[in-house]
Amino acid sequence: MTLLELDSVSVHYGRIRAVHNLSLTVGEGEIVALIGANGAGKTTTMRAISGIRPVSGGKIIFNGEDITRMRGEKRVERGIAQSPEGRRIFPGMTVLENLDMGAYARKDKDGIAEDLERVFELFPRLAERKDQAGGTMSGGEQQMLAIGRALMARPKLLLLDEPSMGLAPQYIQQIFRIITEINEQGTTVLLVEQNAQQALARSHRAYVLETGEIVKAGTGKELLADPSVKEAYLGVG
Ligand SMILES: Nc1ncnc2c1ncn2[C@@H]1O[C@H](COP(=O)(O)OP(=O)(O)OP(=O)(O)O)[C@@H](O)[C@H]1O
Ligand SMILES: [Mg+2]
Question: Distance, CA 113 to ligand 2 centroid (Å)?
């Protein structure tokens, strides 16, 4: 079943067209990756889906419902959670308070407690540091916190914008393993990554974005083997 569909979506910043007639689907249970160079429109696409940025054309359908004009908060209630680029956590709040914020739209206390435990299992570091101010956590730890906070919404669809950014190599492996784990536990994932190699290896399907338009789509495997993708995004000719 299709969980998310973007149908000819365009997004502008003033007169700058960042995303143009973009169509994509994310099926329930999938990990779908969006790769592309700096400025290709990946973050803008994520913002359009989470409702941070209004679209200037096209339609966004989530779980059978047209959410094109729906407010961001409502989309969270519908089951869309985003871990934004640059780990925008709340620096003055503790780790635990940050995680609680992720669950703000929920009322199921038992479910929230369960998910907190799950987040602590996925990221033991967050459990160790639950009373530390978010802003004093290391870069990699803040990345874990941003992902953990998004998971606390118990989303149907998890939007991850550059989860491996700024992480040391051993943490990059770990983050990608955790993404697979989260997916296997039932969460659908849309993943934006500069680390195309890892992203393609871990996703069921992927789209390549160039200057706001999708230029290629396929399974992760297909794109990993695609000569032009290799040359442009995998650093091998
Ligand atoms: N707030 C803004 N105002 C004006 N232009 C913007 C704004 N945000 C993004 N843009 C422009 O829109 C285009 C797409 O940006 P976007 O952030 O979506 O790219 P990206 O693919 O996420 O890149 P990166 O890999 O560097 O994160 C870029 O040309 C960018 O300069
Ligand atoms: Mg970006």
Answer: 32
